[in-house]
Amino acid sequence: MERKVERAVWAAVPPEVTDYGDVGGDHQQGPAFGRRWLRARSDGLFDVADRVFYVMLAAPPGAEGKSVVEQQDMFTVCRDPANPGDTEVEADYRYFNLGSALGTSDDDVRRFAANAQPPTDQEWSDLMGDR
Q: Cα 20 from chain centroid?
């Protein structure tokens, strides 16, 4: 019988808000800001959660489209939380179109990131399963 992995509480990784650069690809307009959290696991691995926000075109470049804020959640299981990308065991992503009603300026995007919360256990499980 496989043993259940126990997980610690999420801890925010400073700084509170980080510039994530160009994570939104060709549709991204302006900077992307986000936050990172991590938690240790009983199997010696780490869970890392990034929530990133940026303004994007709702339609492909060259088409008529409006700007909206997109949220990108990146969940990673890794060996070294200081370098999750290079020590990744598994990862997955999900995206949410947050619309434009709450603003689409750089300051609005930074505010979304500053107010972001770590994922709930249910959010983690919905995307990552038991990983």
A: 10
Integer Cα distance of 116 and 62 in angstroms: 32
Q: Backbone phi, then psi, for 107, in 5-degree steps?
A: -65, -35
Structure-token pair, residue 104: 């689409």
Segment (H or E) for 108:
helix 106-115
How many domains does the chain divide into? 1
Q: Is residue 6 part of a domain?
A: no
Residue 77's domain comprises: 11-126
Q: Which residues contact 82 (CB under 8 A, 6 or more apart)?
A: none
Instruction: Using pLDDT thresholds of 50, 70 and 90, give the confidence band for residue 110.
Output: very high
Amino acid at 27: H
pLDDT in tens, 32-73: 999 999 999 999 999 999 999 999 987 655 555 789 999 999
